[in-house]
Amino acid sequence: MNIVDRIYDLFAEFGGQDYGEDVSQRDHALQCACLAQRDGAPDTIVAAALLHDIGQFIDCAGAQAEMSGTDGYHEQRGGALLRPYFPSSVIAPIVMHVDAKRYLCAREPGYREALSAASELSLRLQGGPFTPEEAGAFEKNIHFHDAIQVRRYDDAGKMKDMVVSPLESYRDLLTRLAAQGADHTGQEAASDK
Ligand SMILES: [Fe+2]
């Protein structure tokens, strides 16, 4: 099975799950991708926004925080699934979107206070806000700005009544990016924990 079909199968099986924010996992992904498109973001960012939480569908990682009070490392699971098929410009913001939250909690006044209850719970399981040293190192990653951008869509893509494009409308974009293949660099690998 090719990776794009695999992605669609995962959404078909698990996309209806509750995201914990009054929207389903599918709606959250579609809202994030739609916000990226409205921003005029490049295809790589649109794809990252759409797929940033796909690791939640693997081995029940998404439910792990609520069920057992541990971190499911969904950003790593998603990165591992997609890394062999997509360029680093797609993979890095996915792998880094949790750290982007930890960074913004450390560096942006009011950011943490505005997090939803679910995001606050997962923040604590994910290690809490970055230290100043960790934040400084994160800023130096070549994918820093892309990771922050996807995080902004992640935080905003939790609306109750947002009109979005259907999942199928992203098939050509994902197929094009998968055709480019993997191009992984030391910087992208360095962003992994
Ligand atoms: Fe998300």
Explained architecture:
With 193 residues, the protein is mainly alpha-helical. The protein has a single domain, classed as Orthogonal Bundle (Hypothetical protein af1432), CATH 1.10.3210.10. 61% of the residues lie in helices and 0% in strands. The protein has eleven helices and no strands. The radius of gyration is 15 Å and the shape is globular.
Main traits of this protein?
0% strand; 61% helix; Hypothetical protein af1432; mainly alpha; 193 residues; binds fe (ii) ion; globular
Summarize the structure.
This protein is mainly alpha-helical and about 190 residues long.
Summarize the helices and strands and which ones pair or pack.
Elements (H helix, E strand, L loop, with lengths): L2 H12 L10 H14 L4 H9 L9 H8 L5 H9 L5 H20 L9 H9 L6 H8 L4 H13 L14 H10 L5 H5 L3
Helix pairs in contact: 2-3, 2-9, 3-6, 3-9, 5-6, 6-8, 6-9
The structure holds fe (ii) ion.
Organism: Brytella acorum
Protein name: HD domain-containing protein
Describe the global form.
Answer: globular
Q: How far is the N terminus from the C terminus?
A: 29 Å
Order of helices and strands: HHHHHHHHHHH
Helix content: 55-70%
The structural domain count equals: 1
Q: Radius of gyration over alpha carbons? A: 15 Å
Overall mean pLDDT stands at 91
Fraction in beta strands: under 5%
Low-confidence stretches: 189-193
Number of strands: 0
The secondary structure category is mainly alpha
Largest sheet: none
